Predict the structure.
Amino acid sequence: MPEIKFYKHDPLPMEMHKVKIVQKLNLLPAKERLEKMKEAGFNTFLLHNGDIFMDMLTDSGVNAMSDNMQSAMLRADDAYAGSETFYRMRDKLEEIFGIKYVLPTHQGRACEHIIAQRFVKENNCVIMNYHFTTSKAHVTRLGARVEELVKDEGLIEKSNLPFKGNIDLDKVRACIEKEGADNISYLRLEAGTNLIGGQPISYENMKEATDLAKEYGIVTVLDASLLQDNLYFIKTREESMKDKSIREITRMIADLFDIIYFSARKFGFARGGAILVRDEEMFHSMEDYITMFEGFLTYGGMSVKEMEAMIIGFDESMDMDIISQGPQFIKHCVDVLDNYGIPMVTPGGGLGAHINARQFVDHIKSEEYPAGSLVTALYLCGGIRGMERGTLSEERNADGSERIASVEMVRLAFPRRVFTLSQTEYVIDRVKWLYDHRHLIGGLRFVHEPKTLRFFTGRLEPVSDWPEKLVEAYIAEFGEDQ
Ligand code: F0G
């Protein structure tokens, strides 16, 4: 999208759509939010959505559909086997990616399950630029391990590098030499990366990394769940690609890989997933897993209505007006907060704005969950739900000690086409207020701690009465009804 110019004003991100269906939001007063937080055991995953004003937990399965997506749902062809909807979806994916073999799944982690099941062997290694929680879990479950070989600069939170998701080619070569190519199940590139702040990977880096894998006969896999953001960054930040269309760039990327998979809860604006396989034999070798774990080969656990919607969503992901929205809103949010002096992950990437919680609340020790505490405080002070990305999401070491996360972040996701600029400004305002009152935020401790994935269902309590004090200060500033 050409940036819309403003008179006597720097450009603002612009919604390139209008609102046609709305959902009423609820802004509970701060005191009620405190009660809800107590009921939820200070775990934002346990809050009810109706008690949340700005749900910025994730961009997964909560993106706004377009009128065209909704109307396409009406023509969904319900059939256990041979649904015409599936063939339309397969044809659209072939048109965009140039790969004709498609395995449907119910969501992204199901693709990961099947790919891992097919290629991973015990004591193998999978090379990635960076892991995602579920992509790693499926590898380790089978007794293999993940080597994350993102360039060192990708982990530096504050920076102005355009492609912090790039993989380090020297490290990749060294890893292959050390492990032996036969012991590497596949090379998986995530474009863009989730856990290091939605940072993109360049086309050039994908080309070099996949060339290297091919030299050694290693299977190449693309996780395209966040591809639409990454496409925007390639088009706007990679000099050699600026004159290419989004479709051309997509095709050039696709041509590099043996397998492409995605969560259609993100890519495609709907709910589902798919694995695209270039080689016919390889495709047939994976079919049985679909029928065993997902559903028949022409729906794979998805609703055909969602499939019809995502067919349109794939086309919309090729439209620069549409895919530029998320990154532009995120950039606005990150830049304003960064200028205010708040420690943000820069430059703004895709998916969401990321706050460096370790620095934001540097008085809270890692064992008392800085990012978890900040996420709690954000809900109390504004009804905003972000996602903790830090030590709280780790599992304890075997000896019971905390495994301290290398990055301690709070993610404020921007589900696509959902929030307006004034809502974004509200979030910016509340984060600024909280930063100026950060000394009032305290730590948390578990009262009920599940062994695995404790962040989903665990219950916590504050280490002192800091939530009450924080809410008091908030009310003194904004009044009882906010
Ligand atoms: N790959 C990436 C890069 C993802 O971000 C996700 C999900 C998945 C795979 C798994 O897909 O959820 O459909 O099973 N990310 C979500 C998030 C959960 O909130 O970031 P899924």
In short: The chain has two domains: 30-59+323-478, 67-321. The radius of gyration is 22 Å.
